[in-house]
Each structure stands twice: as C-alpha cells, then as structure tokens.
Amino acid sequence: MNDLQIREDALFERISALIDLAHKRVKTAIDTTMVYTYYGVGQYIVEDEQQGEQRAQYGQAVLKNLSARLTNKYGQGWSEENLKLCRRFYVIYSNSVNSVYQIQGKKEKQCLPNCDNHSPEISETLSRKSENNLSFTLSWSHYLVLMRIKDEKERRFYEIECQKQDWSVRQLKREYGASLYERLAMSRDKKEILRLSQEGQTIEKPRDIIKDPLTLDFLGLQRDSSFSESNLETAIISKLQNFLLEMGKGFLFEARQKKFTFNEKHFYVDLVLYNRLLQCYVLVDLKADELSHQDLGQMQMYVNYYDRYIKENFEKPTIGILLCKDKDDALVELTLPEDANVYATSYELCIPDKSLLQSKVKQWILEFEEQQDSHEVQNEESKEN
Q: pTM of this prediction?
C-alpha cells in the first residue's frame, strides 16, 4: 500500500467519523425535540381537563376525538393511549422536585408552542432549560420505561445513570429488572442511599464499587445445580463483557488465574481486574460454597502482595473481592481489620426478588429519616436549654 492510498484511507475515516457523529446528533436532536413536544401536549391536556367538570367523560370523549383529528393530520403516533402517556409524562415530571426538567412557573404558558402560530416561541420551548439548568436528554423510549418506576428517588437514579453511562433502552430495562438501585443501596450506609438519587453511582472509595448481591443471570448456570469454582470462572470468562458491566463502572480485565510466587510457593488469583476510576487493582476470588475465615485471610494476603510488589507508587491500594454463594456478615466483620480493603459479596444466578429489595431499602430510608428527625429535635432542645 503506497503513501497516497494511506492518506486517502485516513481522510475517508476522518470524514466518515464526522458524518456518523452528525447523524447521531441529528437523531438525538429529533428525539429530545419530541420529548419536549410530548411534555407540552401533556400540559395542554391537563390544563384543558382541569376546566371540565367530569374527568371521566373528558377521557372517554375528548381524548378519543383529539386522537382521531391528530392522526388524520399527522399520521400514526397520536393514538388515545399515546395521548394518555403524554398526560402522565407531564404529571410526573411537573410534580417531581428532582426531575431533570422543571417548570418555570409564569414563563410556561408563554413558551409552549402554539399549533396555529409557528412563532419563535416554538423553538424557545423545545430548547428551554429549567431554572436548575437541567433538561430532558433521553429518548421518549427511555422515559416510557422510567415512568413505570413509582418511587421518585429510584426513578431519578436510573435517569442519572442513563445520562452518565449512555444506556440503551435495553440496558435500562435490564438494570432496572436486576434491581441495580436496591443492590447499590443495600451495599451502602443509610446516609449514602439518598445520595444515589441525587448523583447516581459515584466512585470515590473502594466501598462504592461493591454491589451485594451481584446478579449473574447471564451465565446460564442453574441455581440449584452443583458446579465448581472452575465452572463458575469459565462461565464468567465466556461472558466477560456482561460480567464487567455487572461489576460496575470503570472495570478493565487483566488476567485469569494470575500466578505469583512467594517463598517458593505458587498462588493463583482467579480474576485480576483494574478499576480506572479508583486507579487500583481489583482481585476477585470465586467461591462456589459458603465463605470461610480462611478464604478471607487468603485474600488479605493476595492484597498485601499486590500492594507491596505489584502496584506502582501512583496507584491506589489494591482491593480484594470475594465473590461467594453464601456469606456470614458477622464472620467477615470479625475476621477482617476495620481498615481492610477486602470485601465479601454474594452472587445470584437469577434476577433477585425486586419487591423484597424495595421493601428493605424503603425501611432503611425510613429509619434514617427518623434518626435525622430525632437528632434535629435533640439539637433544638439543647439550644433551648
């Protein structure tokens, strides 16, 4: 291949990348424009509904006629069911304190588009941001999934993660079905749960990367069947991309069965990962049975070895994760020192019971809020005294 051909290929690739980016931006602009439009449609419906005396008759008659007229003028996409979704979308997000788009009060009626007047206000409506400088950034298909989530804190979490991680609708459905919010919440202190709904999953310290349990339904292993740690490792390697996504943000794969020698004895780490956000090694040992204190001690040794002989000075301390079928939290706490960088987390071979996890998280949040209220009362009493 001559130099001219190389230059032509490079030019072609650069222009192709630019065109692909333009196509993506056009699609994104269309998607977000439609979301704003559906929001405005929902508002008009709610405002008109509030003027009627009988809401049920409104829903049966006006929406049906409106759907027929819009469909006749604009084609498919304006069914009675879709109009109801627009109404629901407006109700949810106009009442949501933490939504990505909030009403600006007095400016709202001035900025909503007028179907009979293609004025500059139309473009202003579709590009307008809220007072907190946030806007709708996801597709309508994303919001159709998000609207199914009743708990506002949970909905807000998935909304943030969709934006940060550029989740597809399919991935959003998978993470919601696998109870990502609940599993992260249960792996954190109670005061950290509320932060999930405000910032999404933040990675600042080793504990932030832990999910309990991990959901490994994609491995295809049967829950009640017996399998060895080697079988589990092989299944993970065959589905490595899915496994790294389930582990969370910033994980990279380095090796399996990583061998190191110390005092003429050979040791093998099942999986060696690296987390680019924390800038540290993450060692994973797989346990097909219940976790023992010997397993914890062995992982602590692995971590110590990597910290002393492998990691560079600019890297953070190594993290050890024991991925096990069963664990005793009291045993883990008693075995490991308080400052240990070793964690035990369980895994599930099927999607966990979402309703059970939701009830636990709600109970934890309620207990935390009660504690906060109690502390405020005590502080007020101490001030008065």
A: 0.62
The more confidently predicted of residues 113 and 276 is: 276
Residue 318 has phi, psi (to 5 degrees) of -65, 145
Give the range among 155-159, 282-286, 363-367 with minimum mean pLDDT. Answer: 363-367
Interatomic CA distance for residues 210 and 212, integer angstroms? 7
Return the amino acid letter for 28: T
Look at the chain and count its residues.
Answer: 385
The pair phi, psi for residue 339, each rounded to 5°, is: -95, 15
For 67-80, how does the pLDDT look when each residue is reduced to its tens digit (9 = 90+)? 899 999 888 889 99
CA end-to-end span of the chain? 87
